[in-house]
Design a protein that fits this description.
alpha+beta, three-stranded antiparallel sheet
């Protein structure tokens, strides 16, 4: 017996994957209620994950307006209040690049600028 054309997608759907179909305009669309009909003539796919947001280090000018006075948390769980900055690093001796890699804001977002 030949397996169903969409066998692998049906299994992924049964395991909770969001399925999309390709419409007559050649566009991928979400299915209403994530309920595919599994028509052999239609094309289906697992809905791709949205790209992860990208962050970059603050510039000095951005840090003056967006970072001063904020509380950040290090990867080790230490909280710090940002009270002053200089052109390339903070008075605590950490660069803007290191702030992005090693710290986050209280809401869990990286300590940098969303691109």
């Amino acid at each position: 017996m030949t397996p169903h054309k969409h066998r692998d997608l049906i299994i992924a759907w049964a395991n909770g994957a969001q399925i999309q179909f390709k419409n007559s305009f050649n566009e991928w669309r979400d299915l209403k209620n994530n309920a595919p009909s599994w028509e052999p003539s239609l094309k289906y796919r697992i809905k791709p994950e949205p790209p992860a947001p990208k962050y970059r280090p603050f510039t000095y000018e951005e840090a003056k307006t967006q970072l001063l006075g904020k509380t950040v948390i290090s990867k080790t769980g230490e909280q710090m209040n940002i009270v002053s900055s200089v052109t390339t690093s903070y008075t605590m001796g950490t660069t803007y690049e290191n702030m992005l890699e090693q710290f986050m804001f209280l809401d869990g977002t990286p300590c940098g600028v969303l691109e």
